[in-house]
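Archive transcription. Copying these from loose printouts into the bound notebook so they stop getting lost. Printout 1 of 2:
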Amino acid sequence: MITTTTPNIEGKSIEQYLGIVSSEVIIGANVLKDIMGSLRDFFGGRSATYEKVIDEARQNAMSELIQRAQALGANAIVGIDLDFETVGGGGSMMMVIATGTAVKLS
């Protein structure tokens, strides 16, 4: 499955547009991760703990997006957009929304 943020794929022709696909993933950081993240926030620097949570959520959203496109018979997804938001009390959960257009390439 070819996935891209661009509206087309160089050297390929879009034969058929199959529709918009989307996926939503909400993942929580546990209490220990929240404490470690708070310490990083206080002292400064990057938080590898939260970076891992964000990466896991992104990977899960992309995997689900691909599955939904495959169910439509697509062999590519173009125009992918990833949105990241915090939700829940105190922003303790990360939400990733992935959207794109499922297409068949010739």
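Printout 2 of 2:
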Amino acid sequence: MIPIQTCVPVRYPPIANYALIGLNGAVFLFQISLPAAEQEAFVYSFGLVPARFTHPEWALRVGLDPRSYLPFVTTMFLHGGWLHLILNMWSLWLFGGAVEDRLGSVRYLLFYVACGLFAGLAHAAANAESTVPAVGASGAIAGVMGAYMRLFPYSRIVLLVPILFLPLFFALPAALYVAIWFILQVVQGTLATLQPQAGGVAWWAHIGGFVAGLVIVPLLHRPRRDYRPHYRDEGILGFRPREGR
């Protein structure tokens, strides 16, 4: 299932979301412009390597500073290839604008970074011995998806399912689609924990970021007086749409 459209109208231009997409693209272009050896060093220096903090002696031996926690932030802006970047930025484009609309640009940026930090912590805790750098914005974007699920649970997400050469389009409620996505992350993360040599995706970063987004977004919600009235398909899951709490 490929999400191709959301149905929540926005009142304000998503400036912060545009900026995040642009920054991710600019960093990736710089990353791939480096020679191969420098690219690897760049990813190791600014990607999240859990063993950097759990085995400082190893980190010093390979030239990493175990006292620098900057990679918890910088890893959000690195990607492993064009497909990785495009899929992440597409998801951020789809879900981020509506969430920013409800939070405001500054609070949205703080929210995004906070989700990314929780995602990094979850990944490091679940993969403490890993010497492989984890890169990508997917943990922070998982937080945006968690916020979207809580803010707009009854809105529709249009999905594309390719069957052979025929595209099939249908719509699901946001709460159902995101819940299915999250369950898949938990299943894959559990399997990766049982067979750590088999996984290359930071599943626990997705899980940590999603939970953080689900919990944090009510704390940063734009005051009702600053925003248009809710539509009938909006609201926070389990609460009355008109009041949002």
